[in-house]
Amino acid sequence: MEVTAGVGGQESMLFTAEIFDMYQQYAAYKNWRFEILEYFPSEIGGLRHAAASIAGLEAYKHMKFEGGVHRVQRVPKTEKQGRIHTSTMTIAILPQPMEINLTINPKDLQIETKRASGAGGQHVNTTDSAVRIVHIPTGVVSECQQERSQIRNKEKAMQMLRAKLYSIKLEEETRKRYNARKIQIGTKGRSEKIRTYNFPHDRVTDHRINRTVHHIESFMLGEELLDEMITSLREYADYETLMEIISENVKTNLT
Hints:
With 255 residues, the protein is of the alpha+beta class.
């Protein structure tokens, strides 16, 4: 999972940190393993960008519906006039490939090491432990500086790179399969607004299934309310898939 602050400056970064925390709590609620791979905080406690590895029973089957643009409407802590602002953040859910699914030629990799740096540019440690890997054929870049060990950072950077390359491959295959369809939950692009968190009205609305739940603070605890929303998305996706199969069978029988 990758989270990135979007439109809205510091408020967007604060919201991004809250959403990242929500999924970390959701992973605990589902008894999944949650490992932070990257974490780039902002100056006032927000989050510019982060990546985490989530592993557990049906983790991807649940989390794949969370990819897209999440929008927040509220009065920011930084707002002096009490006006409601709209900010966004983006989530990308990348399935972690098995070794047999994806082969990466070592000759296609450019691996660089540097000193890990923290907020404000200060160096976190004095060794060249941070690792940056570039996949030359695609230009895809993966970095990791979370660990003090260069070997561990290289392992994590490779893990993220594999996930990114696999995601590109998966998107290509998905596009081929669904190019004739207008709606398909779980395969929408990162630019699609999927959910709005409206704090003044205490509600969360998922725009794909037009479902609204109240008690926004409870929702963001990452427990029962979030799990119910994801379950509804899974059920609707299953219904869509069934409708597609029926539609294909009807076309086949007509021809």
